[in-house]
Give the backbone structure.
Amino acid sequence: MKNTIYPCLWFDGNAKAAADFYCSVFNHSKIINDKPFFVHFEIEGKLIMGMNGGPMFKINPSISLFVTCETEEEIATIWNKFIEGGTIMMNLDQYPWSPKYGFVADKFGVCWQLMLGELPPNGQKIMPCFLFVGKQFGKAQEAIKQYTSIFPNSKTQDLSIDESEDPQQAGSLKFGNFTLQNELFAAMDGFGEHEFQFNEAFSFVLECDTQEEIDDYWTKLTESGIEGQCGWLKDRFGVSWQIIPSILGKLMSEPEKAQRVVQAFMQMKKNGH
């Protein structure tokens, strides 16, 4: 059984420009394919899809991309490129958890956490990071447990629990790492006043080889969640997923078939039904 999970970033017509920018920021990066509706690219070996979805949804800090930088020069270089036209949320500085860390939304609105440190055990330099705030605050550990129970080759790596005396924060997750299908993810609870929540602008694509796999993931991820169209759903925490047949990408890359595929796909409540 082969499944692939990768992030999908929602843009308003500038997905290719964003992909070109990220490939210029990171080493070992490339555009894989460039189509009018979407572009696939890799940065530091991490597959990402950029979608030209229009102005409907905007990316926010609820899901960011966490980057481990191994040298002072590297973190400074990446930081300086991201803050140009971007918005600093936490200054690049020394914090209790890292000698150098910063949180920034780049000029396209995508949020990044940069931290100086050693690469994780599996060597994955870039990982998605969930931030549970507002009505979702305190649910990070529940989400990790839920996701690792659904996907094969998954496990919790480590959890740093808040042990402060503040009863509102005690027991929440300061930071946790976990793997889904051997891909590294992170999650944390964010206390305080935050207006944003998970939305469709940062989703996760799950490619499946068989209808049985599609049905299985759909059933598990929509439990207490919301079914959408075109293979989209929201899980119980409000995180958006796209469950698609792995052959879809190949069909979409063939111009004579792409339009018919899109028309058929848009009418589906769930892929294959």
Summary: Residues 72-83 form the longest helix (12 residues). The longest strand covers residues 87-95. Residues 261-268 have pLDDT under 50 and may be disordered. Helices lie at 15-25, 72-83, 140-150, 211-221, 248-252, 255-266.
